[in-house]
Amino acid sequence: MIVVCPACQARFQYDDSRFGTVRVKRFKCPKCSHVFEVMNPTLAPAPLMPEPPLVTVPAPMPPNEPTPPAPIPAAQTTARRDREAMLVAAGLQVPGMPPGLKFSLAFLSGPQASTVKVIENPQTVIGREEGDVVTLDPETSRRHALLEIHRDGTVWISDQQSTNGTLVNGERITGAVQLFSQQEFTCGNSTFMLLVRSTDEFPLH
Protein backbone atom coordinates (compact mmCIF):
# COMPACT_ATOMS: atom_id res chain seq x y z
CA MET A 1 0.00 0.00 0.00
CA ILE A 2 1.00 3.68 -0.42
CA VAL A 3 1.03 5.79 2.73
CA VAL A 4 0.60 9.54 2.20
CA CYS A 5 1.71 12.06 4.83
CA PRO A 6 -1.22 14.48 5.40
CA ALA A 7 1.23 17.28 6.27
CA CYS A 8 3.69 17.32 3.38
CA GLN A 9 1.99 14.86 0.98
CA ALA A 10 5.11 12.70 0.84
CA ARG A 11 4.37 9.16 -0.38
CA PHE A 12 5.85 6.01 1.13
CA GLN A 13 5.64 2.33 0.23
CA TYR A 14 4.49 0.14 3.17
CA ASP A 15 3.62 -3.56 3.27
CA ASP A 16 0.01 -3.70 4.56
CA SER A 17 0.54 -7.28 5.76
CA ARG A 18 2.66 -5.79 8.54
CA PHE A 19 -0.50 -4.43 10.12
CA GLY A 20 -1.40 -7.95 11.24
CA THR A 21 -4.53 -7.75 13.41
CA VAL A 22 -3.86 -4.16 14.52
CA ARG A 23 -6.63 -1.83 13.31
CA VAL A 24 -4.53 1.32 13.23
CA LYS A 25 -0.88 2.24 13.27
CA ARG A 26 0.91 5.53 13.92
CA PHE A 27 3.51 6.63 11.39
CA LYS A 28 6.21 9.28 11.63
CA CYS A 29 6.99 10.94 8.30
CA PRO A 30 10.78 10.74 7.71
CA LYS A 31 10.55 13.85 5.56
CA CYS A 32 8.73 16.35 7.81
CA SER A 33 8.55 14.32 11.11
CA HIS A 34 4.76 14.67 11.22
CA VAL A 35 3.05 11.86 13.21
CA PHE A 36 -0.22 10.54 11.82
CA GLU A 37 -2.44 7.42 11.97
CA VAL A 38 -3.41 4.99 9.23
CA MET A 39 -6.23 2.43 9.37
CA ASN A 40 -5.54 -1.21 8.54
CA PRO A 41 -6.93 -1.52 5.00
CA THR A 42 -7.72 -5.24 5.51
CA LEU A 43 -10.07 -4.66 8.46
CA ALA A 44 -13.36 -2.85 8.75
CA PRO A 45 -13.25 0.61 10.31
CA ALA A 46 -13.39 0.57 14.09
CA PRO A 47 -12.80 3.01 16.96
CA LEU A 48 -9.20 4.07 17.24
CA MET A 49 -7.03 2.21 19.71
CA PRO A 50 -5.48 4.44 22.39
CA GLU A 51 -1.86 5.31 21.67
CA PRO A 52 -1.01 2.65 19.05
CA PRO A 53 2.69 1.86 18.68
CA LEU A 54 4.82 4.23 16.62
CA VAL A 55 6.14 2.68 13.41
CA THR A 56 9.26 3.78 11.57
CA VAL A 57 8.50 3.87 7.87
CA PRO A 58 11.04 3.52 5.07
CA ALA A 59 12.57 6.55 3.40
CA PRO A 60 10.36 8.27 0.81
CA MET A 61 10.40 6.95 -2.70
CA PRO A 62 12.80 9.08 -4.78
CA PRO A 63 11.15 11.18 -7.49
CA ASN A 64 11.74 10.37 -11.09
CA GLU A 65 14.71 12.66 -11.64
CA PRO A 66 16.71 12.65 -14.86
CA THR A 67 20.07 10.95 -14.74
CA PRO A 68 22.81 13.56 -14.30
CA PRO A 69 25.03 13.98 -17.33
CA ALA A 70 28.40 12.27 -17.33
CA PRO A 71 31.32 14.55 -16.40
CA ILE A 72 33.12 16.15 -19.30
CA PRO A 73 36.67 14.80 -19.68
CA ALA A 74 39.24 17.29 -18.44
CA ALA A 75 40.97 17.70 -21.78
CA GLN A 76 42.39 21.07 -20.81
CA THR A 77 43.90 19.64 -17.62
CA THR A 78 45.49 16.78 -19.57
CA ALA A 79 46.92 19.20 -22.11
CA ARG A 80 48.46 21.29 -19.33
CA ARG A 81 50.08 18.20 -17.79
CA ASP A 82 51.49 17.26 -21.20
CA ARG A 83 52.88 20.77 -21.64
CA GLU A 84 54.48 20.64 -18.19
CA ALA A 85 56.08 17.30 -19.03
CA MET A 86 57.57 18.76 -22.22
CA LEU A 87 58.91 21.80 -20.34
CA VAL A 88 60.56 19.55 -17.74
CA ALA A 89 62.07 17.32 -20.45
CA ALA A 90 63.43 20.41 -22.25
CA GLY A 91 64.98 21.73 -19.04
CA LEU A 92 62.71 24.77 -19.06
CA GLN A 93 60.61 23.72 -16.08
CA VAL A 94 61.78 22.45 -12.68
CA PRO A 95 59.71 19.54 -11.31
CA GLY A 96 57.52 20.70 -8.44
CA MET A 97 57.61 24.37 -9.48
CA PRO A 98 54.37 26.01 -10.71
CA PRO A 99 54.25 26.09 -14.51
CA GLY A 100 54.27 29.35 -16.42
CA LEU A 101 55.98 31.38 -13.67
CA LYS A 102 59.56 32.43 -12.95
CA PHE A 103 60.70 33.53 -9.49
CA SER A 104 63.73 35.55 -8.42
CA LEU A 105 65.06 37.62 -5.51
CA ALA A 106 66.57 41.05 -5.98
CA PHE A 107 69.03 42.23 -3.30
CA LEU A 108 68.08 45.82 -2.45
CA SER A 109 70.56 46.31 0.41
CA GLY A 110 73.38 44.45 2.16
CA PRO A 111 76.68 43.03 0.86
CA GLN A 112 74.96 41.56 -2.22
CA ALA A 113 73.01 44.72 -3.13
CA SER A 114 72.12 45.23 -6.83
CA THR A 115 72.29 41.52 -7.62
CA VAL A 116 69.47 39.15 -8.56
CA LYS A 117 69.17 35.48 -7.65
CA VAL A 118 66.88 33.21 -9.68
CA ILE A 119 64.84 30.79 -7.55
CA GLU A 120 64.95 27.33 -9.13
CA ASN A 121 63.57 25.06 -6.40
CA PRO A 122 60.30 24.90 -4.44
CA GLN A 123 62.27 25.40 -1.20
CA THR A 124 65.03 27.98 -0.90
CA VAL A 125 67.15 28.56 2.22
CA ILE A 126 68.46 32.08 2.81
CA GLY A 127 71.61 32.18 4.99
CA ARG A 128 74.79 34.05 5.80
CA GLU A 129 77.28 31.58 4.36
CA GLU A 130 75.25 28.53 3.42
CA GLY A 131 71.96 27.78 1.72
CA ASP A 132 70.56 28.51 -1.72
CA VAL A 133 70.77 32.31 -1.33
CA VAL A 134 73.98 33.43 0.44
CA THR A 135 73.88 36.96 1.83
CA LEU A 136 77.49 37.33 3.18
CA ASP A 137 75.77 39.54 5.74
CA PRO A 138 77.15 39.23 9.32
CA GLU A 139 73.71 40.24 10.68
CA THR A 140 72.12 37.29 8.91
CA SER A 141 72.07 33.91 10.66
CA ARG A 142 73.70 30.82 9.16
CA ARG A 143 70.26 29.48 8.16
CA HIS A 144 68.09 32.56 8.45
CA ALA A 145 64.84 32.08 6.48
CA LEU A 146 63.06 29.56 4.27
CA LEU A 147 61.28 30.55 1.07
CA GLU A 148 58.66 28.05 -0.15
CA ILE A 149 56.95 28.14 -3.55
CA HIS A 150 53.75 26.12 -3.68
CA ARG A 151 52.32 24.40 -6.73
CA ASP A 152 49.53 26.98 -6.95
CA GLY A 153 52.11 29.75 -7.47
CA THR A 154 51.92 31.24 -3.97
CA VAL A 155 55.15 32.10 -2.15
CA TRP A 156 55.62 31.79 1.62
CA ILE A 157 58.49 32.81 3.89
CA SER A 158 59.21 31.62 7.41
CA ASP A 159 61.98 32.48 9.86
CA GLN A 160 64.35 29.66 10.85
CA GLN A 161 64.86 30.78 14.47
CA SER A 162 67.36 33.41 13.36
CA THR A 163 69.02 35.77 15.84
CA ASN A 164 67.77 39.04 14.33
CA GLY A 165 64.55 37.69 12.86
CA THR A 166 62.88 38.05 9.46
CA LEU A 167 60.86 41.21 8.79
CA VAL A 168 57.94 41.56 6.38
CA ASN A 169 56.36 45.01 6.06
CA GLY A 170 58.67 46.10 8.87
CA GLU A 171 57.33 43.55 11.35
CA ARG A 172 59.11 40.47 12.66
CA ILE A 173 57.28 37.31 11.58
CA THR A 174 56.63 34.31 13.82
CA GLY A 175 55.16 31.86 11.31
CA ALA A 176 54.81 31.38 7.56
CA VAL A 177 53.77 34.60 5.79
CA GLN A 178 52.68 34.86 2.17
CA LEU A 179 54.71 37.10 -0.13
CA PHE A 180 53.53 38.75 -3.32
CA SER A 181 55.42 39.92 -6.38
CA GLN A 182 57.50 43.07 -5.72
CA GLN A 183 57.03 42.72 -1.97
CA GLU A 184 60.07 43.36 0.22
CA PHE A 185 61.39 41.48 3.26
CA THR A 186 64.52 41.80 5.39
CA CYS A 187 66.98 39.30 6.85
CA GLY A 188 69.59 41.03 9.06
CA ASN A 189 70.90 44.01 7.06
CA SER A 190 69.87 42.48 3.72
CA THR A 191 66.60 43.54 2.12
CA PHE A 192 65.12 41.54 -0.75
CA MET A 193 62.33 42.05 -3.26
CA LEU A 194 60.42 39.04 -4.58
CA LEU A 195 59.93 39.13 -8.35
CA VAL A 196 57.40 36.87 -10.08
CA ARG A 197 56.84 36.98 -13.83
CA SER A 198 55.07 34.88 -16.41
CA THR A 199 57.08 32.73 -18.80
CA ASP A 200 54.32 32.60 -21.41
CA GLU A 201 56.28 35.21 -23.35
CA PHE A 202 58.81 32.44 -24.02
CA PRO A 203 56.59 29.61 -25.37
CA LEU A 204 57.99 26.18 -26.11
CA HIS A 205 58.16 25.57 -29.88
TrEMBL record:
SUPFAM superfamilies per the UniProt record, alphabetical: SMAD/FHA domain
Protein name: FHA domain-containing protein
InterPro entries reported in the protein's UniProt record: Cell_Proc_Reg/RNA_Proc, FHA_dom, SMAD_FHA_dom_sf, Znf/thioredoxin_put
Family annotation (NCBIfam families): MJ0042_CXXC
Annotated FHA domain residues: 124-173
SMART domains, alphabetized: FHA (SM00240)
